[in-house]
Write a structure and sequence with these properties.
Elements (H helix, E strand, L loop, with lengths): L1 E2 L4 H13 L3 E2 L2 E3 L4 E3 L2 H14 L2 E10 L2 E10 L4 E3 L3 E4 L5 H20 L3 E2 L3 H4 L51
Parallel strand pairs: 2-9
Antiparallel strand pairs: 1-7, 3-4, 5-6, 6-7, 6-8
Length: 179
């Protein structure tokens, strides 16, 4: 993230805006995953007025190089102070306008929500999906005497084994991106 030399006024204004920002309702449906999400318009609706009332503008700058799609988000305060995100990028399925546009919408939605603090709220999506809305009863934990003994010798700290880094994920397609 880059920023102006000072960001005190922007930070104060953003804190006031965040106090007024409500959660974004998950009102769009992703048919591929049978799930709900807050679309770009809903994210904008959740933050546009509080940001404007606190004199904060949002500029999102897209860039595409073939099927590599990149976006930066800039928050600018009326004082001249600003913060700019690091580029967020994804690889589209191909360089066709629909694939690139889908990726841009996805990036704009996630980066705007992250930069200004919009959190999607659950609008009873569980009930809409036909799943129970009451917590599922979980079995009580086993008493200490019934637990499996630790396979490590006494005095050896619990350490998670290290794993090699994961391979690069495949490029996103239109079907992978809810919009």
């Amino acid at each position: 993230m880059t920023r102006s030399e000072s960001i005190g006024k922007l930070a104060a204004a953003l804190a006031k805006a965040q106090k007024a920002i409500k959660g974004a309702v998950k009102d769009a449906k992703n048919p591929h995953f049978n799930s709900r999400y807050a679309d770009l318009a809903t994210i904008h609706d959740a933050c546009r007025e509080p940001l404007a009332e606190n004199e904060i503008a949002v500029v999102q700058s897209p860039h595409a190089d073939g099927n590599l799609v990149r976006l930066t988000t800039l928050l600018i305060h009326s004082s001249g102070e600003w913060v700019e995100s690091d580029p967020l990028q994804v690889q589209a399925r191909d360089a066709a306008p629909q694939a690139v546009g889908s990726c841009l919408t996805y990036l704009r939605r996630y980066q705007l929500a992250a930069m200004v603090g919009v959190a999607p709220e659950d609008d009873d999506a569980e009930a809409a999906e036909g799943r129970p809305t009451t917590p599922v009863a979980r079995p009580a934990p086993l008493p200490q005497a019934n637990r499996m003994p630790s396979p490590k010798p006494p005095g050896v700290p619990n350490r998670m084994p290290t794993r090699p880094s994961a391979p690069e994920p495949p490029p996103l397609s239109d079907k992978d991106i809810p919009f």
